[in-house]
Amino acid sequence: MALDDIKKAILAEADAEIKTVIQQGEQKIGQLKADWNRKLEEHKQAIVATAKRKATQKIQQTQFKLQAQAQTEIINQKQNIIDRVYKSALNKLNGLNDSDYVVLMIKLINRLPEEDGKLISAKGKEALLKKALKQSGRKFEVLAETANVSGGFVFRSKSVEIDNTFTSLINNSRDWTVLEVSKMLFNRDQQ
User: For helices 126-136 and 98-110, what crossing angle results, to 10°?
Assistant: First the structure.
């Protein structure tokens, strides 16, 4: 019997040790699961934070792009308005009655340099230019040659050529008036 008791004691001791090992194993498994769950949660949070940061950057980039496009469109629309203003000014010049046309030509002739020169009239406006030249008292020759323009003239001398056609006058005035025109048209946007 002593052998049976020894066996039972060994088995009881082995069972106790097995239970201890199983408990320790379950504790380690539980600890590993807790560590992995914590690491998994940290990783999830890092991924979410990165995704949020990237989404915020993408939103900001899209907003900037849309604002730039809107600004470009606004600038284009303003440019179109400015172009229409100058086109309207050209149309007003082209629509001058004969007496106003002569008055304008006299002013342009009087601004010419004091040297011998010749005038090339806008086609169909030769008689009006000659009338203006006579009234100005200046001594230029009006050539038979005409310019295919809506109004005004070209002055030629040995040293200079001055383009006083309506298109040229509008284009030249645009260079030094566009800022003022822009301010008059769009200052109300700033208020």
Answer: 50
Cα–Cα distance measured from residue 82 to residue 79, given in angstroms and rounded to the nearest whole number: 5
pTM for the predicted model, two decimal places: 0.62
Give, as one character, the DSSP assignment of residue 95: T
Closest CA to 105 of 93, 113, 117: 93
Residue 158, SS3 per DSSP: coil
Cα 68 off chain centre by: 6
* pLDDT tens profile 146-157: 999 999 999 999
Sort strands 161-165 and 152-157 into parallel, antiparallel or unpaired: antiparallel
- Which ranges constitute the DSSP H helices of the chain? 2-94, 98-110, 126-136, 166-190
155 with 129: CB under 8 angstroms?
A: no
Nearest Cα neighbor of 128 from 149, 148, 104 is: 104
User: How far is the C-alpha of 47 from the C-alpha of 37, rounded, in Å?
Assistant: 15
Q: What is the pLDDT of residues 95-119, one digit of tens each?
A: 999 999 999 999 999 999 999 999 9
Question: What's the token pair of residue 55?
Answer: 């989404």
Give the separation between CA 124 and CA 149, rounded to whole angstroms: 9
